[in-house]
Structure formats: C-alpha cells, structure tokens
Amino acid sequence: MPIEQAVYVSELVEDWPLGTDPQSAGDDHFRLVKKVIKNTLPNATGAITGTPENLNNLTDGITWRKSDTAGVPSYYSVDNPEVMREDIVQERASIAARTPSLDDVKNIPELLLTWQALQNLFYPIGSQYVNYTDSRNPSEILGFGTWVTVVGMVAGVGSATDDVGYTKTLDAGYQAGSWRVRNEQIVQVSLDLDAWTELAGSHNHEYKRYMNGGENEQNHISIDDVPFGWSTDWTSTTPDHSHAVTGAVIIGYGLQEDATKPAFFNPYYGAYIWRRTE
C-alpha cells in the first residue's frame, strides 16, 4: 500500500496501513500521522486541557451562514490573563458578519429575539422619537412599535420656580393653555390716569329767594326796586373748571377668539415628535 499524501487530519485514510503492509510502510504511516497532527495544530505549544464540552461551547449560539461578503466568525476570550497583560499588545478579534437587513431579522429567529430586546432597550413603551426632517411614523422608519404624535411645547414634568420665586408644577401629558394673554394672567398694576372734561366756559345759575317787606331795615332788601315778595336772582359767575371722570382703561385690541391676530409664544424650533404606546 503506498504512503498517504495527507496534510491535515481530515485527509487521513483510517483504514491505512493494511495488515498486509510491510513493517517499514507502517513506520512511514506513523511518521505521516505525526506530521499531519502538527500541521493541523501548529500552535499547540502546551497542553490543551479543555474538555469536549468546553470546546463545543466555543461556537454555541453562532449560526454559520454562507456569505460572499461576510468574514469567518472568530472567537476571542477576554478572560485570558496573557491577552490582558499590558506588555502584550494583541488586536482583539471580532465576529465579522454582514449587517443584517430588516428582512434578515424577521426571518432568523435568533436575530429576531435579539432585535426585539434592542427595541425595548432603546425605545421602551412611553419613550419618544424625534426627527427634524422626516415626518413619517416611526413604525415605517424603525419597523416596529405603535406611535402617536406629540404636538405643542414640550416641558419636563416637575416643579419649576421663576426669578421672582413663583413655583409652578408641570404635569405629565397634554396640558391645555392659552394662545392669548388674559387679564387674570397679568400681574396687577396701578396705572396713573389724568382725565378731565372739556372746558365749557364761565357760567352761573338762576335761583329764587323771598323778600320780607317789613319796616325793619335789616329785613328790607330791594331787588330791582321790588321792596318785598318772591324774586329771581343769579349766582355769581363760576370761572372755568373741570369735573371728575370715572371709566375703564382698555389695553390691547385683540379678541380671545380672534384667530387673525398673532399668537403669543416664545421663539421655537419645530420637530416631528412621536411617543411609543405599544
């Protein structure tokens, strides 16, 4: 029987040499086996103490798939003290594989479970998704979840105090406000009002009085040569004067329900905001 031409263990023929082969041929085969083992395990410079279970677990959980672009999956142990030594610089290997598409994730159960875990890790129920240019629902962009739009100014929940010490509690969820400033939202202030009536010129008033015609000089008053009885007279002329005025001060000209007037709010930067519900 001729000597085998094997290079690696997988190429050895288990039935060789035959029992009828000469002893010298058996020696040649024995030397070949040693050479093949060294070729197969070129870096086995020490005892390999791993059990079959340990060795089998090296690839546990790795799905081997044919790919024209992906590299060969490789294993790297970060627990090896020799690798972690500062005086030994070794590049850490990684599993090289093509980035799975959304269809790959849906078709491979192992990836699907991992993808679902990542969904809830990065976007748990109640979290938000923000995009400044794309108005599509995140379910179209990310491929998962049920989302509802968030419209309006967004504020953090809790209590906030302004610069004069007034504290306001901000609650979760949509809170209705007002696009117009109303009287109850304005801090009370006293406004000085200077007002007067138009001048009407000087004038006097007519009045009547009774004349006592007694002989007593103190009771004798002559008005227009009438010694006694009722008479008409006029008060003295009052100079120009004004009267007190009461009324209302109107500030502004817009109406609460008037949509043609500009709304009152701070400058803002708009974005498409969504909240995950499922």
Question: Descriptors for this entry?
Answer:
two-stranded antiparallel ribbon, 3-stranded antiparallel sheet, 7 strands, alpha+beta, 12% strand, single chain, 278 residues, rod-shaped
Structure, described:
Residues 73-80 and 214-222 have low confidence and may be disordered. The protein has helices at 23-40, 52-57, 81-84, 102-107, 109-122, 138-141, and strands spanning 128-131, 147-149, 158-161, 167-170, 206-211, 229-234, 272-276. It has six helices and seven strands. The strands form three sheets. It has a three-stranded antiparallel beta sheet with strand order 1-7-2, with no helix packed on it. The chain is of the alpha+beta class and 278 residues long. It has a domain at 1-50.
